[in-house]
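step=encode ok
step=design start
structure_in=
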């Protein structure tokens, strides 16, 4: 029985240093989970990529022989990549246009191909619009995305199974494939989830001495709505709710945001906290100090931030992108307002500040949901699907 698992992620491997490749810390820890749970060899098939940085906040350079899995760095359309896939027991492919033919290649060889989906067409178009491109360039990218959706749908139909990260693609594609699995990506292990939200131990009456503690974490980019955070803070200040907003992360908007905070006199209310270590700094701080997470994501990418925030016992107030709205339909752990309406978001945050019991109820709901969707539980479900599909191939 061929028990080999090949994982082909959309992440590229940096090749700019001798004897090392660039991955991300999150990817390496995720692959370790595959290695731990898979009863056979695990190989990562990954495209080469130039440059010292991927744009992610947790880049790591590492020697391939130090990794717990084999790596094949090759273009997805190369003979090396095709041979790696057809020799596998099962292939798990990331959401990448360069893998459009992977389902066909695997089907012809009798190898089960399981496709990971993340961004719906609606979300991909929102990402294009968030880049604020000139008209003709935006039109061309939107046209490309529409054509890519046709290729994605064809791949979903042909794949042995699909793993949908978040509700948007699950709802879009579940009828196209009889083996559709919904999962939620996060880095939260069971032991990281507290027994009760920290809000239970805090006085939920907000004054100048005990302001409402708000937080945002993630890449400081337009795609993540970071350009709306200062506008939101100004609107909340005008309402008169005492608050403190801590913004954790880095990105292309960081310098401009710092200047806006100074120019609007928000230095005592809005703080840029930089990049924190997830497990040892950000998670404990969120559990201990944050009352409410502010999410200005202007598109529906299935951000791991959502589950990670709920696992801290912190509710979310944000824009009604399809990923957050879909999550909150399953778990009433937050509240959404119309997209791009920072004033409405400030008003909703103020309402929640005046409704402490509702805030606490949301926090408890989020914790309960997070306990059902830990890193370990989601990975076991994904591994179980892969093994089930591989066994069908063997028994056929």
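sequence_out=
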């Amino acid at each position: 029985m061929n028990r080999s698992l090949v994982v082909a992620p959309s992440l590229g491997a940096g090749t700019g240093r001798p004897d090392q490749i660039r991955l991300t810390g999150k990817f390496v820890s995720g692959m370790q989970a595959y290695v731990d749970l898979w009863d056979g060899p695990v190989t990562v098939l990954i495209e080469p990529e130039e440059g010292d940085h991927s744009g992610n906040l947790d880049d790591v350079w590492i020697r391939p022989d130090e990794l717990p899995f084999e790596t094949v760095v090759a273009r997805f359309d190369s003979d090396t990549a095709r041979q790696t896939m057809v020799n596998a027991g099962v292939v798990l492919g990331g959401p990448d246009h360069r893998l459009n033919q992977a389902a066909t290649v695997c089907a012809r060889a009798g190898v089960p191909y399981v496709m990971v989906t993340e961004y719906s067409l609606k979300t991909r178009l929102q990402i294009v619009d968030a880049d604020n491109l000139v008209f003709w360039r935006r039109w061309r990218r939107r046209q490309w995305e529409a054509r890519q959706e046709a290729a994605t749908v064809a791949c979903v139909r042909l794949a042995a199974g699909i793993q949908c990260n978040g509700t948007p693609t699950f709802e879009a594609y579940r009828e196209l494939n009889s083996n559709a699995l919904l999962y939620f990506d996060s880095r939260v292990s069971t032991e990281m989830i507290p027994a009760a939200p920290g809000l239970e131990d805090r006085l939920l009456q907000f004054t100048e001495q005990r302001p409402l503690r708000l937080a945002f974490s993630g890449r400081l980019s337009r795609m993540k709505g970071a350009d709306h955070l200062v506008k939101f803070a100004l609107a909340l200040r005008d309402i008169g709710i005492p608050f403190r907003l801590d913004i954790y992360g880095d990105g292309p908007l960081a310098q401009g945001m710092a200047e806006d905070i100074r120019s609007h006199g928000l230095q005592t209310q809005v703080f840029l906290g930089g990049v924190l270590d997830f497990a040892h700094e950000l998670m404990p701080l969120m559990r201990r100090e944050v009352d409410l997470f502010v999410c200005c994501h202007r598109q529906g990418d299935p951000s791991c931030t959502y589950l990670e925030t709920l696992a801290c016992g912190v509710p979310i107030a944000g824009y009604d992108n399809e990923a957050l709205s879909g999550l909150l339909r399953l778990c009433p752990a937050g509240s959404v307002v119309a997209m791009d309406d920072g004033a409405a978001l400030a008003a909703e945050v103020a309402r929640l500040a005046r409704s402490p019991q509702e805030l606490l109820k949301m926090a408890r709901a989020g914790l309960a949901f997070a306990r059902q969707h830990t890193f370990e539980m989601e990975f076991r479900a994904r591994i179980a699907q892969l093994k089930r599909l591989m066994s069908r191939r063997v028994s056929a």
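step=design ok
step=annotate ok -> The two ends are 12 Å apart (CA to CA).
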